[in-house]
Amino acid sequence: MNRVVTKFYEYGQNEIDYLKQKDEILGRAIDRLGKVEREIIPDLFPALVHAIVGQLVSVKAVHTVWDRMQERLGEITPENITRHSADDIQKCGMTMKKAVCIHSIAETLTTGKWDIETLRDLPDDEVIRQLTTLNGIGRWTAEMLLINSMERRDVVSWGDIAIRRGIMKLYSLSDLSKVEFEQYRRKYSPFGSVASLYLWVISFE
């Protein structure tokens, strides 16, 4: 079985020192947790498919479906995915809507109507704008691609429940408004993505 190639999100002491200096509470959490290793998928198409699968509620379900896709469908490339039907994709454990979305994006790429690699040269907002024109892709999915494939530096996703839960746990909040969230996001900038790595871990502690 050809497994999708992964690596760890790259960041270093510069980002850590900046976040610790900007936010003492987050800094203590960083000291306690040490370096967080976040596995990412550098190849954009499988990373986008993984982000669509990642819309499932349970992290365990995401792992199960992702493994099943690689076992049953083979390589997660546009060319290979178009050789399978949406039914085949759906049988890996997702809704038909998600399966059709994945199949449609694969077809768009194989026919040359869109080149996903052009995203690499675009700013974050434009990446989000282009991706959200695709059927089944919302802002959260686009933001996950920015972090979990493109290694963009400053993404903190309001749409990510675990990120919001991580902020609430870290600062002992009973609720979190969008305005409060934006204050934290701005504080972490320009290394919001590294803050996100820690918030994800904190949310599951």
What does this structure look like?
This protein has 205 residues and is an all-alpha fold. Helix 3 packs across helix 9 and helix 8 packs across helix 9. Strands 1-2 form a two-stranded antiparallel ribbon. It has 12 helices and 2 strands, in the order βααβαααααααααα. Helix content is 59%, strand content 2%.
Shape: elongated
Examine the coordinates and then state which fold CATH places here, giving the name of the CATH topology of the largest domain: Endonuclease III, domain 1
Helix content: 55-70%
CATH-assigned homologous superfamily of the largest domain: Hypothetical protein, domain 2
Mind sketching the topology for me?
Elements: E1 7-8, H1 13-22, H2 24-33, E2 39-40, H3 44-53, H4 59-73, H5 78-82, H6 86-90, H7 96-110, H8 124-131, H9 139-148, H10 161-170, H11 178-188, H12 192-203
Antiparallel strand pairs: 1-2
Helix pairs in contact: 1-2, 3-7, 3-9, 8-9, 10-12
Describe the structure concisely.
This protein has 205 residues and is mainly alpha-helical. It is 59% helix and 2% strand.
